[in-house]
Amino acid sequence: MKPFSLALLLAFSVLSCTTRAQEHKITNDRFWNTVDGEPIYSQGGGIFQFTDPQSGTPKYYWYGVHYQEAETYRNDPSVTLERNHFEGVTCYTSTDLVNWTFEKHVLTKEAVNFEENPTWLGRMGVAYIEALEQYALLIQHGKNVMIALADSPLGDFKVHRHIDMTSRIGTPNTGDQTVFTDPDTGVSYLVYSYGQGRNKIYISEIGVRDGKVDLLEVHEIFRGASREGNCMFKYNDKYYMAASNIYGWDGSFAYYLVADDIYGPYKPTNEMQVMPGSEQDYAHVSQTGFFYTVRGSEQETVLFCGDRWAEFAGNGLGYNQWVPLSFDGETPYFNSLHSWKLNETTGTWSVAADNNYIKNPSFEADRRHIPSNNKPVQEQLLGWHTEILQGNPISTTEATSPVLNHFNTQKDRQHVIGEKSLHISDQVPFERRITQELSSTPYVNLPNGKYRLSATIKNTTGFEELNLYAQSDTQTFKTSFNTSNPEWTTITIDEVAVVNGSVTVGIYVKGAAGAEAWVDDVRFELLD
C-alpha cells in the first residue's frame, strides 16, 4: 500500500472541509488518552501520513515507544523512576491530529528479542520505501541503528538489519535521531548526531543499496556545541534543523538553523539560535521531539511536538507537549501554551478558553537548585523574577545566597506537580517580591477581562506579610496567607481585571529569619 497521491489528497481535503472543518482542543500538562479513553504511550517518534490500507484514504500515523515505566509514572507521579523497559512501538491513527485511535504495537518485544537482550530502544520513525513497496521503521537499538520492515504502515515490523555507524561517522551509534519526510518530494531522511558528545549533526537519505534498506550518503550539516533531540521540519519552502541542549531527561531551549536546501548550508553556520519564546520555560518544560507541518486550506502551521520524559525526570505531567509555532520572516516563535485549538483542515489555530497563561507554573523548568553555578549558570528561575528588597543577595557563588527553588519530596508530590516548587526563605530577616509579567505577544493575545489567579502553598510561621497578588494598570488584587499552613493549600483570587493586555502576577513576602514558604502550581485563567 503506497503513500497517498496528490490527487487523492486533494479529494480528501475537499471532503474534509465539509466533514471536519472544526477546531479540536489540545491540552498539555496532562496525560493523554485515545478516543476510547485508553492511555496514550508514545515517546521519541513522529507523525507521518500514509494511505489507510482499509479505506484507501490518507490518515495520520503517530508512532512512538511505549515504556513500562510510563505506565508506572502515570499511575503514581509522586515517584521518579530511573530505568526504562521497552514494551513496543505503538501506532495511533487520526484524521485531525488531535483525536487518536490505538491500532497496535507495530514492533513488539518479541520481534527484537527484548527479554533476552533488554537494551535501549528509542528515537524512531517510519519511511515508505517505494522501490521495495515496504515501510521501514528506523530505531536506535543498543549501539546500532536498527531497520525493521513491514508491508503495511500498521506492521507487523520484522527486523531487517542493524547498521553499525562507525565506518560512516566514527561512532557505532547515533546520538539522537528522527525520521523526516519532505512533504514536497516524499523522500525520507534520517536526521542524527554523532554518538559521542553529539557535537555533529548529519542527514542521510533513506534508500536502497544492494537490495537492502540503507542510509545513503552522509551529509554533515552542523558542527559546534553539543546538541540532542535532532529533528527537522519544512515551512514556507525552508528547511529547519532543530535540537535541544544536552540536559538528559530535562527541558531545554529549542534551537534551530535554517536552509534553502535540505543538505544546507544551514545558517548561521554552526551557530544554532535559540527559538524565541522557548527561553521562558525551556520549551514548555520539554525537549525537541519532532515536528509536523500542517498544510491547511488557509495557512501552514508547524506543530512543535515536545518530549517530556516524565517517567525519568519527574518534570511535570504528560509525556507529549504540543504547541503551534509562529513565524517572523524566517524566525520561528515558540508559543508556550497550556491549552489551544487546532483546525487541521484550515491549518488555523487559537488559544483555548482554559489556557493557563503562566510560564513555568510548577517551577519544573529549572533542572538544578537556583541560583546555579553548574550548567546552566543561572541566577533567576525561568519565567520568574525575584527582587530582593531586604536580605541576602542572590548569588551563584556565595553560600549565604537564598535558594529559590525546592526539590519536592514524594509526600509533597502527592499534593503538587513534579519535583520542584518555589522556595521563599533566608537566614536573615527578608523582604522579597517574586513576579511574572504577562502580556499579549504578536501571536498570542492576553484578552482584557476577568481572570482567576490561584496557587498551591505551604508555609511556616514568622511572616509579617505573605501575599499572592495580581496588578493590571492601576488596580491590585491580592490575598494573604501569612498564618501557618503546614499542609499544601490552594488559594485563589477571583475577578482579577486585566486591561490593556498586560498584568503582573506575583508573591510578596516579609518574613523573619528562617521563616519558609513554598509555592507551586500557579494558574492564571480567563473566567467565562
TrEMBL record:
Q: Which family does it belong to?
A: Belongs to the glycosyl hydrolase 43 family.
Q: Which GO terms describe its molecular function?
A: hydrolase activity, hydrolyzing O-glycosyl compounds
Q: Which organism is it from?
A: Leeuwenhoekiella palythoae
Concerning CDD domains, the annotation shows: GH43_RcAra43A-like
Q: Tell me which Gene Ontology terms the entry assigns under biological process.
A: carbohydrate metabolic process
Q: What protein is this chain from?
A: Glycosyl hydrolase family 43
Q: State whether keyword Hydrolase applies.
A: yes
Q: Which UniProt keywords apply?
A: Glycosidase, Hydrolase, Signal
PANTHER family, per the entry: GLYCOSYL HYDROLASE 43 FAMILY MEMBER, GLYCOSYL HYDROLASE FAMILY PROTEIN 43
Signal sequence span per UniProt? 1-21
Is the keyword Signal assigned to this protein? Answer: yes
Q: Which SUPFAM superfamilies match?
A: Arabinanase/levansucrase/invertase
